[in-house]
Task: inverse folding
């Protein structure tokens, strides 16, 4: 079987995909419970997330090693990305003028529509990359995009 552990072609890739999917599933359950640690089925989502993240790390390490990927380059990228995440979390990430303009335009539309909830803020954050491609649209077009996102 190609891409599986034991394969000669990208060994472990299918396992990495599987494990990533399991992390996504647990994250979806956390979102679905509003962040509650206990799922309606009685399982501990923090524990499940811990286990699934460990499985992803193990699968990633296997793929890196078995496929001869540049571990030093990966570690460098991890450190850079982690710092970016910390900066975003702290609210100290650098923004370009375009990013600020797009954010201000969206914030103004959200306010005009009476949408100032946490859910709407999540829309802004989760769709930031998608939002950039819409930055040149008219206000009417931007409102249509926002309406689609809120569905």
Result:
């Amino acid at each position: 079987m190609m891409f599986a552990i034991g394969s000669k072609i990208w060994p472990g890739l299918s396992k990495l995909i599987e494990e990533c999917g399991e992390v996504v599933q647990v994250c979806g359950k956390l979102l679905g419970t509003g962040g509650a640690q206990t799922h309606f089925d009685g399982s501990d989502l923090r524990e499940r997330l811990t286990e699934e993240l460990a499985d992803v790390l193990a699968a990633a390490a296997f793929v890196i090693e078995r496929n001869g990927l540049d571990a030093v380059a990966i570690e460098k990228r991890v450190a850079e990305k982690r710092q970016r995440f910390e900066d975003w979390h702290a609210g100290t990430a650098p923004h370009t003028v375009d990013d600020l303009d797009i954010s201000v335009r969206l914030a103004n539309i959200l306010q005009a529509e009476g949408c100032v909830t946490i859910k709407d803020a999540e829309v802004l954050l989760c769709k930031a990359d998608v939002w950039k491609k819409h930055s040149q649209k008219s206000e009417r077009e931007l409102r249509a995009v926002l309406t689609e996102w809120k569905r």
